[in-house]
Design a protein that fits this description.
The complex is a heterodimer of chains A (about 270) and B (about 325).
Chain A (H helix, E strand, L loop, with lengths): L1 H30 L1 H5 L16 H8 L1 H34 L5 H13 L2 H12 L8 H25 L3 H9 L4 H30 L2 H6 L7 H11 L4 H23 L9
Chain B lengths: L11 H4 L7 H13 L1 H4 L3 H37 L13 H8 L1 H34 L5 H13 L2 H12 L4 H8 L13 H24 L4 H9 L4 H30 L2 H7 L6 H11 L3 H31 L1
Classes of the chains: A mainly alpha (about 270), B mainly alpha (about 325).
């Protein structure tokens, strides 16, 4: 038995090293961006051959980046709010009730998650174009609600499954009506799921590229598309500088969530 | 284990985990519900109100997806059989025929699906040990490991692709390292090929695979593995006969996500392939926005959806066979 344990421990150590290596692979592309943003050269160079802040200044000198950031943020927030309301209602319907056609409903609601984004973009363009809704915030929001809904639905459903219904029933037996039960019992219990779903939705929408590609154009650009446009002419550390700013933003969001929630408990894909 | 072995027969249930973790648990919960006073007192009027309640809960989502997902797809399907758009038209299948007859499109289709299969297999092989480690680890830093695993999802798509440009580019990290070591004098062209695209996609899609596998692995009772070991199975056999079959559902769910997301990806192939890697998504983009042939572009999109669906169905059948083993 002793030999087995030793071998087992050795295997575990190897696994640990492997995982460390893989996590390094996952983090590497993010980590190299930051030094590259501070390099003085015109090309994306690693390691950088000096220190300069001019690329950050260049970001500030392009007002279109800030404008695109505003569009992305606005679309993400509105789409998330809509997805949150609609998705939470649907989660209640699917988790709490049994009815014919329930599985088909489920499938429909999460279908956008695995549907090829490029095809959905094309399909939306063809519907929104005759309505003159392409290159409008409204059109973008409509598409993003569909894209983010599955994420909200899945996170909220997962949390809802974990809610002990006896708590709600106790509240009702003690005389609380349905709304009071919801506000004072159910809502606090599913709040972590709602926050996790909203965060996921914000990230997905803010970062969405392929569908937005078909619905944006001159006059209305999201941030990823504005950066993509910029790189059609030049690839210089300006985009590394923007990336660095976005990484800082991500880190702040993660810290906030870690603090309020604890991350891994509520995030499920 | 009250739920018995996970319901391998329906790979949906873990990709779409709305129905609970398995039939067993749902059954238990329903059992509890019928015992409770509120529900057992339920009369006909109450039941009717409940049915209206479900309708109210599901109607907004159903309406939204009907109008903004199903209708656009139906509309696109309609466009794909029109002779031309806009303008006077009649029904035709010529776009589909044109696609099937053109070796260029067939090559693009082949590259796309081979790439998607390659990325899926790679994420399974590379990601499984990480999921296993994550689930079994009692490390203090478990939440940091989790953050590192999902980090590609938390940073912008732009950051990721630029990161790979910095690593793989002519002036990039790998070339600088190789040059410093004296291995090469001229930079190696690591970008603008299908391998760079594959690396970029594996990087961003690994979190989906790892989390899908981990969520199923986490539900396996460690006692099962211990029993196998006590009964004399060595580690490899235990893994092969117990752990892997029980986690096949997670692999299935992860594969579906990764496969479909690869098929639909546009920006990563575009950026890391820079016109050298022609995929289905880039072709559709060209047809719709550059050549502006909407009927043909629609037909191509429909073919992509149909092909993806066919492969998924095949895969479901395969998983079911493996699960029954």
């Amino acid at each position: 038995m002793a030999g087995g344990t030793a071998r087992r421990r050795r295997a575990e150590r190897w696994l640990g090293w492997y995982v460390a290596g893989l996590l390094f692979f996952l983090a590497l592309p993010i980590l190299v961006v930051i030094p590259a943003a501070f390099g003085p050269d015109v090309t994306l160079t690693f390691p950088p051959r000096g220190l300069s802040l001019k690329w950050f200044k260049n970001v500030v000198d392009h007002p279109e980046f800030l404008r695109a950031f505003g569009v992305s943020l606005a679309v993400a927030v509105v789409a998330t709010l809509v997805a949150l309301v609609v998705g939470t209602l649907a989660a209640f319907g699917l988790v709490r009730h049994r009815f014919p056609g329930r599985q088909a409903m489920e499938l429909l609601f999460v279908a956008p998650l695995i549907f090829p984004a490029i095809v959905y973009g094309v399909a939306m363009l063809m519907v929104l174009n005759p309505l003159r809704l392409t290159r409008t915030t409204v059109g973008l929001v409509l598409a993003h609600v569909v894209i983010t809904l599955p994420y909200v639905l899945r996170t909220v459903s997962a949390t809802l499954h974990g809610v002990n219904r006896q708590l709600e029933e106790s509240a009702q037996i003690l005389g609380a009506n349905r709304w009071r039960t919801f506000w004072h019992v159910t809502f606090p219990l599913i709040r972590p799921g709602l926050i996790a779903g909203a965060t996921f939705s914000l990230i997905i929408s803010f970062d969405e590229f392929t569908v937005s590609l078909f619905l944006t154009g001159p006059g209305l650009m999201t941030l990823p598309l504005e950066i993509y446009n910029y790189t059609e002419y030049t690839i210089d550390p300006t985009i590394a500088a923007i990336s660095t700013l976005l990484i800082v933003l991500s880190v702040l969001v993660i810290l906030a969530i870690e603090r309020f929630l604890g991350f891994e408990k509520h995030f499920q894909l | 284990m009250t739920g018995g072995r996970p319901a391998v027969s329906s790979p949906h249930s873990s990709l779409f985990p709305l129905g609970g973790t398995g039939q067993g648990e749902g059954g238990v919960r329903r059992g509890v519900a019928t015992l409770t006073p509120t529900l057992s007192l339920e009369g006909r009027g109450r039941r009717k109100r409940r049915r209206l309640g479900v309708l109210g809960l599901l109607a907004p989502a159903a309406a939204l997806l009907g109008a903004l997902f199903l209708y656009p797809l139906a509309n696109m399907a309609g466009l794909s059989v029109r002779t031309k758009f806009p303008g006077a038209w009649s029904y035709t299948a010529e776009h589909y025929a044109k696609f099937a007859a053109d070796p260029y499109f067939l090559r693009v289709t082949q590259t796309t699906f081979l790439l998607a299969i390659g990325v899926t297999v790679l994420t399974i092989v590379v990601g499984y040990p990480v999921a296993y480690y994550f689930v079994r680890s009692r490390s203090r830093y478990k939440h940091l490991i989790f953050l590192a695993v999902i980090s590609p999802l938390l940073v912008s798509i732009v950051v990721r692709t630029i990161g790979w440009t910095i690593i793989l580019g002519n002036e990039g990290l790998v070339n600088a390292l190789l040059r410093a070591l004296g291995v090469i004098r001229e930079p190696l062209p690591l970008m603008n090929n299908v391998w760079a695209v594959m690396v970029g996609l594996v990087h961003v899609l690994l979190p989906f695979m790892i989390l899908s596998i981990a969520s199923v692995l986490g539900k396996i009772d460690p006692a099962l593995e211990e029993s196998a070991a006590i009964l004399g199975a060595n580690a490899a056999r235990t893994f092969w006969r117990v752990t892997l079959p029980l986690s096949i559902q997670g692999i299935a769910a992860g594969s579906i996500l990764v496969f479909c997301l690869t098929i639909g990806a546009y920006i990563t192939p575009w950026w890391l392939g820079r016109g050298k890697v022609l995929l289905f998504s880039t072709t559709i983009y060209d047809q719709i926005l550059v050549i502006i042939d909407w009927p043909f572009g629609s037909a191509a999109a429909m073919i992509l959806v149909a092909a993806t669906l066919a492969i998924l169905l095949l895969y479901f059948a395969l998983i079911r066979r493996v699960g029954r083993r």
